[in-house]
User: Which sequence fits this backbone?
């Protein structure tokens, strides 16, 4: 119907937005240098709530590498999100909504919530209101480290939102060196270990990422470390050493509490 209403002016592509190559949809003539004004390419989307977060993370990673939709330059985006997600994306340092998404978006973009659309404006009507968020890529990111490294530091910092920041950041390091390495990270980055994650500014995260990068350069195995893998290995060893008649084994790691359930004649375990 849209194509029929605008013959020759509108091209409809049926596909998966998570895999569609946006960079192939526009002519090379639209390309601009990154430092120039944004190109005449604009991503506008009423995003399904189920894909909005993975999609914006994907596009932010594209932005950091200047590929995908950002091969044309500083492509602007105007997107809809569940109101709560929109508030997280635009939340300032110290606010209750401050989150991983706040930092990941704001270190790469100028982010602005332009309006709120009431749920009753949609058919079918969602149970929540919708926020419209505008993204303009910065000419220079506020953190100049690989996206995956920044994402790992930020994700760990926010996994214990209500605790001091050193709690989550400590999970960047193996248990054997956790205390010493966390202290070194915070000291060299000049970050107060008793700050809550929501109190950490983009500038704080820049310092943390820069120091963590140096630590990873000194220890090539550090970046690949994932505390959840260490926890799983501990759980496996513990379960093997227990009699299967015991219905449950409770393991508490310094990172989080997980409950592993073991049943007779079963090698499966479940965590919660």
Assistant:
């Amino acid at each position: 119907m849209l194509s029929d209403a605008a013959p020759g002016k509108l091209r409809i592509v049926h596909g998966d937005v998570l895999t569609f190559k946006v960079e192939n949809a526009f002519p090379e003539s639209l390309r601009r240098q990154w430092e120039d004004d944004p190109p005449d390419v604009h991503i506008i989307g009423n995003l399904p709530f189920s894909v909005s977060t993975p999609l914006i993370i994907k596009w932010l990673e594209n932005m950091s590498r200047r590929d995908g939709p950002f091969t044309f330059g500083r492509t602007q985006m105007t997107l809809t999100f569940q109101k709560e997600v929109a508030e997280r994306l635009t939340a300032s340092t110290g606010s209750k909504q401050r989150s991983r998404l706040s930092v990941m978006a704001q270190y790469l973009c100028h982010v602005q919530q332009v309006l709120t659309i009431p749920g009753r404006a949609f058919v079918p009507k969602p149970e929540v209101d919708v926020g419209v968020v505008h993204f303009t890529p910065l000419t220079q990111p506020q953190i100049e480290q690989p996206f995956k490294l920044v994402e790992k530091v930020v994700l760990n910092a926010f996994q214990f939102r209500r605790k001091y920041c050193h709690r989550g950041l400590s999970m960047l390091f193996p248990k054997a060196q956790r205390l010493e390495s966390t202290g070194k990270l915070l000291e060299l980055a000049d970050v107060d270990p008793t700050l809550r994650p929501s109190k950490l500014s983009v500038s704080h995260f820049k310092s943390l990422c820069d120091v963590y990068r140096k630590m990873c350069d000194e220890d090539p195995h550090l970046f690949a470390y994932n505390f959840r893998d260490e926890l799983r290995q501990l759980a496996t060893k513990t379960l093997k050493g227990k009699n299967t008649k015991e219905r449950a084994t409770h393991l508490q790691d310094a990172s989080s509490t997980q409950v592993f359930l073991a049943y007779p004649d079963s090698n499966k375990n479940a965590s919660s």
Remarks:
- The chain has nine helices and seven strands.
